[in-house]
Design goal:
Blueprint: H1 4-20, H2 24-32, H3 40-60, H4 64-82, H5 88-109, E1 114-120, E2 123-130, E3 139-144, H6 155-162, E4 167-172, H7 189-199, E5 206-215, H8 218-228, E6 232-238, H9 244-247, H10 253-263, H11 268-275, E7 291-296, H12 304-314, E8 317-321, H13 336-350
Parallel strand pairs: 3-4, 3-5, 5-6, 6-7, 7-8
Antiparallel strand pairs: 1-2, 2-4
């Protein structure tokens, strides 16, 4: 029988692994091999290595698409090896492998891909920019990760927006992925403003039509940024958080440890004090542009009451999905495409 931490990861996230690109049978075999948390990283690392080797063999033979698809699977497996891991050296190494594999995937699969690096507070924010083919000056959608996600997890999510004529910028903000050298930023309008300033002047993007989408903790960051950054013409919050301190008691030990790490506070007590800064109270009513909230009524990490309050205070539209888990990864067909349609319509109207 899996130990408590492994069981938490299975119960909470199994549908997320498949949605983000893990093969169903790979998932079953990997999880069956992990009974104790100390084996989690190595099992997923081995899965990533297997797909990276398949990618290298295909690329040597000149099979670019097959290689690129295998690199995506490798990147996702490396990501899930390290996303809740606690051994720093392994965490950093596997993170680098995930980034490198996704870069190889995008190099082979998407000729529009660019790596964007934005100086910020002594560090660097990194994003993957992709553009839809045959669309002049598309609007831009910035994808914002949560506490334990990174830009590498969004390859398939990006397609929802690209296929509808929007460019995507999946961003590792402060405390996320390649931005982990910086602490989490409660005032998320600051890093988003830095990114938009960095992109200003580009002629291949319509920067008068910019939207932002955030998941989980990113579902706090996007509404917060919209309250203060007028360049965001529309936003979506998926499984968002109204008040981080309020949902703290719902979090597992894995999530708490992750928050301590990426706030760089050093202790659970200090991290809880940091969390008290992350609330939309007194902020939500400043939001003027369209905001969509998507939330599952079986979410165990955030609360529907918080999203209802955000909808009342901001005028946001709330899609409450019956039976949906955190991120509504178990019923993704009910919201991913429709939410991308919603964004396309709002950005079209903004133009």
């Amino acid at each position: 029988m899996p130990d408590r931490l492994v069981q938490i990861a299975i119960d909470t996230w199994s549908s997320r692994y498949v949605l983000r690109g893990v093969d169903h049978d790979d998932l079953a075999r990997t999880l069956a091999s992990v009974e104790t948390w100390d084996r989690w990283h190595d099992a997923w690392r081995a899965l990533g290595d297997r797909h990276a080797e398949l990618a290298r063999r295909a690329e040597v033979r000149g099979h670019r698409r097959t290689a690129g698809e295998a690199y995506v699977r490798a990147s996702i497996a490396y990501h899930f090896a390290r996303y809740l891991w606690h051994v720093e050296a392994e965490y950093e190494e596997t993170g680098r492998l995930s980034v490198r594999a996704m870069q190889d995937a995008l190099r082979l699969l998407d000729p529009t891909w660019e790596r964007i690096e934005v100086p910020y507070r002594g560090g660097v924010l990194v994003g993957n920019l992709r553009r839809p083919p045959d669309v002049d000056r598309p609007p831009l959608v910035v994808l914002v990760p949560g506490l334990d996600s990174t830009k590498e997890e969004f390859f398939h999510w990006e397609r929802c927006y690209l296929d509808r004529g929007m460019a995507t910028l999946s961003l590792d903000g402060p405390g996320q992925g390649e931005g982990a050298g910086l602490p989490i930023e409660p005032e998320y309008e600051r890093p988003l403003a830095a990114v938009l300033d960095h992109l200003a002047g580009r002629t291949d993007l319509d920067l008068d039509r910019v939207g932002a989408v955030g998941v989980s903790l990113g579902g706090y960051s996007v509404p917060r940024a919209m309250a203060f950054e007028p360049r965001l013409k529309a936003g979506e919050a998926l499984a968002g958080v109204y008040d981080v301190a309020e949902v703290w008691p719902l979090w597992s030990p894995l999530t708490v440890r992750k928050f301590v790490k990426h706030t760089r506070t050093g202790s659970e007590e200090a991290a809880r004090a940091f969390a008290a800064r992350m609330t939309l109270e007194g902020v939500a009513e400043r939001i003027r542009n369209p905001l969509l909230l998507v939330f599952g009524d079986r979410d165990t990490i955030a609360t529907v009451e918080g999203q209802r309050r955000l909808a009342r205070e901001s005028g946001a539209e709330l899609w409450l999905i019956e039976g949906g888990n955190h991120g509504v990864t178990n019923l993704s067909y009910l919201h991913l495409g429709p939410a991308a349609d919603w964004m396309a319509d709002r950005l079209r109207a903004a133009g």
